[in-house]
Design goal:
Helices cover 32% and strands 31% of the residues. It has a seven-stranded mixed sheet, sandwiched between helices. The protein is globular, with a radius of gyration of 16 Å. Strand 3 and strand 4 form a beta hairpin. By secondary structure, it is an alpha+beta fold.
Amino acid sequence: MTEITAWDVSVRPAVPEDRPAVERLWLMFRHDLSEFRDILPNPDGTFRNERVEDAFSSPDWAPYLLVSGERPVGLAFVRGLTGPVRVLNSFFVVRGARRAGIGLRGVREVLARHPGHWEIAFQYENPGAVAFWRRVAAETVGDAWTEEPRPVPDRPELPPDVWISFEVTG
């Protein structure tokens, strides 16, 4: 087994040739989230993927791939590039690459590429995400961040998402 460290990982924009790998990572990401939001796959075994489509086709979005050598180990989707607020719409690191600083390094590289006001959502039901995103905020901007629960649009049956907000300077 090869141990992977944060220094073995790079972040790069995902290009159309990366889409099959991003789609596979997306399935793993949605599978992980299914534990916290009672999400079931579609009849064909996939999960909704309009965010993948948006990430690759909208000028307001940017898809990123986290890679170790030639191996994809994570993804990040940023939206809001043409507006006043950037949103880290999706962020995922494969389980075999977690707990080695890869996620923290990856997200900080993505944030640095798009200075400005940022918002990131997570769920209180996911304790790993709570700890991770609070750490990201604290290590990125100290105590200059806020946390706010907000209802999930068009999903009143779900608990609110939690949003952290902060500024990233260039």
